[in-house]
Specification:
- This protein is α+β, with helices and mostly antiparallel strands.
- The chain contains 3 helices and 21 strands.
- The strands form 4 sheets. Strands 10, 13, 14, 15, 16, 17, 18, 19, 20 and 21 form a 10-stranded antiparallel beta sheet that branches. A 5-stranded mixed beta sheet has the order 1-8-7-3-4.
């Protein structure tokens, strides 16, 4: 009887040890998986990580990525360029000279559609005067995109600027007038001239004016190198420096700039690269409501 009890007791201890070890291994695997992300060209991922110091730096591919701190956690949007070479990369949280946390990204390919458009030939083969104008405008835009406010200016998830039909998705390869090739790094929405255009999220107006390619345009800085662009408007209803909330009307849709007809062009830029706005919306919903 005693031997039988001892055997059961030992067996019970072995089972407990096995269960404890299995749970520990599963916890370790889950933690490892939490540090691994998959991303495709033109996409963005919202990552969070523990932060103990306000002096911490978050580096991806060796370059600093701005992040927000909330309740001891860091929040950052990490992008992969549309022109990606599909190379996996890592991000590290650095405190002083010590690596505190790391995140790995696997980059997978993503097929994009193609389309042909017919537009004003003057918007394809530029005159010397137009080339000079485009260069000056690009210099202004570069300065804007390098001066983002260092924190989130929004407390809600991003939303689409219009509920209408999407007529051209992000990433579409384009051929203009059967000759010039390019990429459509934004989303086009069906809109008549004069339809109201709301802001996709809260932020600061950093540009409201006329540009060669996108016509009357509004650009919003949402903080931490996140911008949204609203192009081909017939009229802008905001001024540089204005603070807007999600849903505020910032302009009216139109047919200005290089277009083949009235519509709204919506672009989203993260860390200097145009990314798919629909992916930004989905990722922002993981933290913001």
């Amino acid at each position: 009887m005693f031997r039988k009890f001892s055997f059961l007791k030992v067996s019970f201890h072995i089972v407990l040890i096995f269960l404890f070890t299995s749970c520990a291994l599963r916890a370790q695997d889950t933690k490892g998986m939490a540090n691994q992300y998959v991303i495709a060209p033109g996409e963005v991922r919202l990552v969070d990580f523990p932060v103990n110091s306000k002096e911490s730096k978050f580096l991806c591919r060796g370059s600093e990525v701005k992040f927000a701190q909330r309740n001891g956690r860091g929040l950052a949007f990490v992008m992969e360029s549309y022109f990606s070479n599909l190379t996996s990369f890592g991000c590290q949280l650095i405190e002083g000279s010590k690596e505190i946390y790391s995140i790995n990204f696997s980059v997978v390919d993503k097929p994009y559609k193609a389309e042909q458009l017919k537009v004003d030939s003057k918007k394809i083969k530029l005159s010397p005067k137009d080339e000079l104008r485009v260069a000056k405008e690009q210099a202004i835009l570069n300065k804007i995109y390098q001066s983002s406010i260092p924190d989130f200016l929004f407390t809600e998830a991003f939303k689409q600027p219009m509920d209408s039909l999407i007529t051209s998705v992000y990433g579409t390869r384009r051929v203009y007038n059967k000759q010039k090739k390019g990429q459509h790094l934004g989303i086009d929405y069906r809109a008549a001239i004069g339809d109201k255009v709301p802001a996709s999220n809260a932020g600061k107006i950093v540009y409201s004016g006329d540009l060669f390619y996108t016509g009357w345009t509004v650009i919003i800085d949402h903080g931490l190198d996140i911008f949204s662009v609203y192009g081909h408007l017939s009229k802008t209803l905001v001024s540089d420096g204005d603070i807007v909330r999600r849903g505020d009307i910032i302009g009216l849709s139109g047919n200005t700039g290089r277009t083949s007809g009235p519509h709204l062009h919506w672009g989203t830029k993260v860390q200097g690269q145009y990314i798919d706005g629909l992916v930004l919306i989905d990722e922002s919903k993981k933290y913001f409501k």
